[in-house]
From TrEMBL:
This is Flavodoxin domain-containing protein. Gene3D superfamilies: 3.40.50.360. InterPro entries: Flavodoxin_dom (IPR026816), Flavoprotein-like_sf (IPR029039). Residues 4-132 form the Flavodoxin domain. It holds the Pfam family Flavodoxin_5. SUPFAM superfamilies: Flavoproteins (SSF52218). It comes from Gulosibacter molinativorax.
Amino acid sequence: MRILVAYTSKTGFTKTYAEWIAADLGATLVTTDELSADLIRDHDVIVHGGGNRAGNIGGLKKFLNHWDELKNKQVVLWYTGASPANPHAEANVWGQALTDEQRDKATLFYLRGGFDMKLLRGADKMIMSGMRTALKLKPNRKPSEEGILKMIANPNRELDRANVAPLVEHVRSLASA
């Protein structure tokens, strides 16, 4: 079984997971920008991951531009985020990102990555800096807003190679199916 792992990463969390997944599966590893119809046709299982930024999964729209080629393949999708696992929140993210057909076709995973303000660049850094300033000035903050301020102030790296095990085992199970 030929496996392709594609990813989009801004801060390195998703890239690290993609490298671990590809290594564990003996898969071809590419960025979403390198993905092509030919690469998809040459592989049996296509795995894609991106970081979640305000409900948008990095590279997913570009990945899904290949849906005509993907719908006849085994598709496994994952995203990384800073929050602890929360099935309700994850369902909302996938519900906004995918059509019903795509959700039915793909197997979906969440891998906790983390957040580190020092890793942000450009517009992402400006947005988070602006959010931090606005929240600091806001009286009577909600607990969720306090949580955002805490996250910004305290880098959080939750990368753990063990987190990829369920995804890797699922892909391996596709070979024996």
